[in-house]
Amino acid sequence: GAVVSQHPSWVICKSGTSVKIECRSLDFQATTMFWYRQFPKQSLMLMATSNEGSKATYEQGVEKDKFLINHASLTLSTLTVTSAHPEDSSFYICSALVGATSGNTIYFGEGSWLTVV
Amino acid sequence: SQQGEEDPQALSIQEGENATMNCSYKTSINNLQWYRQNSGRGLVHLILIRSNEREKHSGRLRVTLDTSKKSSSLLITASRAADTASYFCATRQAGTALIFGKGTTLSVSS
Q: Average pLDDT for residues A20-46, to the nearest whole number?
């Protein structure tokens, strides 16, 4: 099946710094990718929809200037957490849509643990 | 945003017993999917049921969908300790992302 790779798997950064998480579709082209955040013992919350070549669409309550999403190619979307704070510590997981129609499959990356100290 | 609720939030059973989890959602959907997540890990896709289907089986899993009640259930038969995980339902409308429910934490003791 299709593979989505996330990097890094885990990262520790200092407060105030920025950290970038990559989401790659390894064997297919993904015009649409999705970013989720999951706090411990909670569910996945959709943060934004990333479309190749255009601006991301953010969910209500998600700060677009803090969570920068870039989808510059058909196989790569990046999430940059800017000026990170300890409350940004979370599990971030991306998914990629295979094909352009609603019936096509979504594949998930393995997730990235972010700890801000 | 979240689509709905899972019920129960937590479930503890003995090996060999069946586990049933329910999911309710709010909007019309194209399909509903169930995922498993082991603690601190990524998601494992279990099963997809389309809006025009009522029941689907996969191994020890049985999923039902009632679109009139906007609800689904996941039954795991003859549970094993390895089934211990969190289980999430997720729904999809046309051309959109998966929206996840709050999840059920299943604990199977041997």
A: 93
